[in-house]
């Protein structure tokens, strides 16, 4: 299982993203895994796609995510995430901190992300190159 970060999804969906080519080369490797993401990551993804490509493109990306990724939901997620957010003293966004919380809870060790902040997190390997 692999956690999929917003910047990876955005890079695959947007041909003008500076990481698009890297993401497309990495995509087959990521697709071989069961993929999981979270509601905050979806919110971040849809907001940014909509901002740069419009609501229709954002809607298409949302439909793709919901059809191809498990979406983690837990009513206590934010309470548990606050611990990680404080641990990294806000150097990881709250959305990224939710990713760490979910990954630890589900014993996931890989994340598809171009965000180097994840490199500081013990037990997580960032998949960002093909």
Describe this structure in words.
- The chain is of the alpha/beta class and about 130 residues long.
- The chain has a single domain (about 1-125), classed as 5'-nuclease (Rossmann fold, 3-Layer(aba) Sandwich).
- About 55% of the residues lie in helices and about 10% in strands.
- It has 6 helices and 5 strands, in the order βααβααβααββ.
- The protein has a 5-stranded parallel sheet, with helices on both faces.
- Helix 3 (about 40-55) packs antiparallel against helix 4.
- It is globular and about 35 Å long.
- The mean pLDDT is about 95.
Distance between the termini: 17 Å
| Overall number of structural domains | 1
Largest beta-sheet characterization? 5 strands, parallel
Shape: globular
Measured on Cα atoms, how large is the radius of gyration? 14 Å
CATH architecture: 3-Layer(aba) Sandwich
Primary descriptors:
single chain; 130 residues; five-stranded parallel sheet; 5 strands; 56% helix; globular
Give the helices and strands, then pairings.
Layout: E1 2-4, H1 6-13, H2 20-31, E2 35-38, H3 39-53, H4 55-68, E3 70-72, H5 77-87, H6 94-106, E4 110-112, E5 125-127
Kindly summarize this structure in a few lines.
With 130 residues, the chain is of the alpha/beta class. The chain contains six helices and five strands, in the order E-H-H-E-H-H-E-H-H-E-E.
């Amino acid at each position: 299982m692999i956690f999929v970060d917003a910047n990876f999804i955005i890079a695959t969906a947007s041909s003008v993203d500076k990481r698009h080519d890297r993401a497309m080369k990495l995509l087959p490797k990521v697709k071989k895994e069961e993929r999981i993401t979270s509601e905050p990551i979806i919110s971040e993804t849809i907001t940014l796609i909509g901002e740069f490509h419009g609501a229709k493109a954002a809607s298409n990306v949302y439909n793709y995510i919901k059809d191809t990724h498990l979406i983690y939901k837990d009513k206590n997620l934010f309470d548990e995430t606050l611990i990680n957010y404080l641990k990294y003293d806000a150097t990881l966004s709250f959305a990224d901190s939710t990713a760490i919380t979910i990954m630890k809870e589900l014993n996931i060790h890989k994340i598809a992300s171009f965000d180097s902040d994840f490199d500081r997190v013990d037990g997580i390997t960032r998949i960002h190159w093909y």
